[in-house]
Design goal:
Layout lengths: L2 H24 L23 H19 L14 H26 L7 H19 L17 H23 L4 H21 L1 H11 L1 H14 L10 H23 L8 H13 L14 H23 L4 H21 L22 E2 L2 E2 L4 E3 L2 E3 L1 H25 L1 H11 L1 H6 L4 H27 L17 H11 L5 H16 L7 H15 L8 H8 L11 H9 L3
Antiparallel strand pairs: 1-2, 3-4
Helix pairs in contact: 1-2, 1-4, 2-3, 2-6, 3-4, 3-6, 5-8, 7-8, 9-13, 9-16, 9-17, 9-18, 10-11, 10-12, 10-16, 11-16, 13-14, 13-16, 14-16, 14-21, 17-18
Length: 568
């Protein structure tokens, strides 16, 4: 790069820095003169509501601009280049700011409701976008350099700080009290995440978590377990409980779809089997069985019955492939819903009370600990849903362990071989039907396990909860979308996909009538721009990009067959 070009690049980075600082400063001005808009943006000197998000977005732009200017101590922010990161961060600041101003104008009846501070914020947030996109800020992408070695305690501290920041970010999002704030939060978080990824920060964090895997897993668990202690009421804890249920079932489906490559469109039926089983043995007066199993027995019963159904359904259907298997599993899901709707004593035997379902399911009780009552733990009062949240968190840990161990086992390699090329795997001696049935049964068991807890959280089960597609997750379409959106064959992918697909409709109620449209558009865009999902499968990346590295795990169909043959 010539001296002239270098000087121009420095000027554009300085302009980006000035725009970021001006964006931060604009949040200390009033953006509207009336408090009718949520968040009270009428105060000078004190950002409120959506202004806080603009403040954070502007700070990120300024910090990354300083990193691009080689300011000592900040170069670590952009290990693989700053231009792309600055572009996305600038878009995040612009999107959050302009969304707020447009929302003010629409809800209050025109631009006349904006104070001069609003116009200052609009202009200031546009400066970084103009500098990085339209004035031609040169791309400084470079090969990622080996990070400077830090003491072990410092690297561990970074991991802990990142998970603490993640907990704070999630808590802020789930605690948002109005749709405008949550929409602005989504805009800011999405563009910030893309910016961090393009800067190389995500890759560097992945390196640290791989180096200190057990510490990273422990930090993630502690951060997740700390969530109920940040809530003063159960209002948003219920959303978190349902996210965990949704994510647990999505992980079970990921075994079937992501590892074994079996397209199951009726998977939510196994969730229903577990829920109905737990409901019928819970001791509720609506059950035809006059029994009340203890907690552990109810969970085992629900999981075992789901396992039996998985084997009974999988045995005759798993000899099919592709679209034919998908059609049969879809039929099974509908048969389950119709069957439990007809077992009302009129159309069939009285078992499930038909369309009325099984209501009045009592709360779980484990060694005298009633999950439906508030308890004080470490000085914090935990409500009923906080108890169920911690229980589902433990169930999630169990499912993650099962998924990771099964995926890394010889059976797991056989699943990958079957997924990649069933004909080749069968020709090499793998019993394709057997390994597919194991995947189907294991996935059904994990769904049934989650269903047993769901029945007690909802206190009722009805057939309409277990449809293929509907306004309230989890259902088969939502579960499949969560796996594909998050990333098939990964652990964090379905967790992220399930969280997004449940949280967004829960916080943006006006979108519930357009959920399927939104998911369809999201999946189309994903297949076009990131077909591997939000979290890429490292095995697939190694297969297609690093096959020449001897130390990389070989997951090509032939290798998967050879390593799985002995165990299958």
């Amino acid at each position: 790069m010539t001296d002239k070009a270098t000087g121009r690049a420095e000027q554009l980075r300085l302009l980006t820095l000035a725009g970021g600082i001006a964006t931060v400063a604009s949040t200390f001005l009033a953006w509207t003169y009336t408090s009718d808009f949520p968040g009270d943006l009428t105060v000078y000197g004190y950002p409120g509501g959506l202004q806080v998000l603009t403040l954070i977005a502007g700070l990120l732009v300024a910090l990354f601009a300083l990193s691009a200017l080689d300011v000592k101590g900040l170069r670590w922010l952009t290990p693989t280049g700053s231009t792309k990161a600055l572009q996305y961060l600038a878009l995040g600041a612009l999107g959050t700011t302009w969304f707020t101003l447009i929302a003010i104008a629409v809800e209050l009846g025109g631009l006349i409701n904006l104070e001069p501070g609003g116009y200052v914020a609009a202009a200031a947030s546009a400066v970084p976008v103009v500098a990085t996109f339209f004035l031609g800020l040169p791309d400084d992408t470079r090969q990622a350099r080996r990070p400077r070695e830090l003491p072990s305690w410092a690297e561990i501290l970074i991991i802990v700080a990142v998970f603490a920041l993640g907990l704070s970010t999630f808590t802020y999002g789930i605690d948002t009290e109005y749709a405008e704030l949550f929409t602005g939060y989504l805009i800011a978080v999405i563009f910030a995440a893309i910016g961090f990824f393009r800067a190389g920060l995500i890759a560097r964090l992945n390196g640290l978590t791989s180096k200190y895997r057990m510490i990273a897993v422990s930090a993630a668990f502690v951060a997740a377990a700390a969530f109920p202690f940040t809530q003063s009421t159960d209002q948003y804890t219920l959303i978190a409980v349902n996210i965990l249920i949704f994510a647990t079932v999505a992980l079970g489906l990921n075994i079937v779809v992501g590892l074994a490559g079996l397209l199951d469109l009726g998977y939510v039926a196994f969730l229903g089997v577990g829920a109905y089983t737990a409901a019928l043995v819970s001791g509720t007066t609506a059950s035809v069985f006059d029994v009340r199993f203890p907690f552990w027995a109810a969970v085992l019963t629900g999981a075992v019955v789901s396992l039996i159904f998985g084997v009974l359904i999988g045995a005759p259907t798993l000899r099919l492939r592709g679209d034919y298997l998908a059609i049969v599993t879809l039929g099974f899901g509908e048969i389950f819903r119709i069957a439990v709707g007809n077992l009302d004593g009129v159309s069939g035997p009285r078992i499930t009370n038909g369309p009325n379902g099984v209501p009045n399911i009592p709360d779980l009780e484990f060694f005298g600990y009633n999950f439906g009552e508030s308890h004080t733990v470490l000085g914090f009062e935990l409500g009923a849903y906080a108890n169920y949240y911690l229980l589902m968190l433990l169930a999630m840990v169990l499912v993650v362990i099962v998924f990771s161990r099964a995926g890394d086992s010889r059976i797991g390699r056989a699943w990958v071989a079957i997924r990649e090329d069933e004909t080749a795997a069968t020709a090499m001696g793998i019993n394709g039907f057997r390994v597919k049935l194991i995947a189907f049964a294991l996935g059904a068991t994990l769904a049934g396990l989650a269903g047993t807890v769901q029945a007690h959280v909802q206190h009722t089960v009805v057939p309409e909860m277990y449809v293929f597609a509907g306004p309230v997750p989890p259902n088969s379409a939502f579960l499949l979308a969560a796996v594909i959106l998050g990333g098939m064959g990964t652990i964090t992918g379905p967790l992220l996909g399930a969280s997004l697909l449940y949280l967004i409709p829960a916080k943006l109620q006006f979108l519930q009538d357009y959920q399927l449209l939104g998911f369809g558009i999201a999946l189309i865009l994903l297949m076009r721009f990131r077909p591997e999902g939000l979290i890429a499968n490292r095995r697939a990346q190694l297969e297609f990009h690093d096959t020449d590295q001897s130390d990389a795990p070989d997951t090509t169909p032939g290798a998967g067959v050879s390593t799985a043959k002995a165990g299958a």
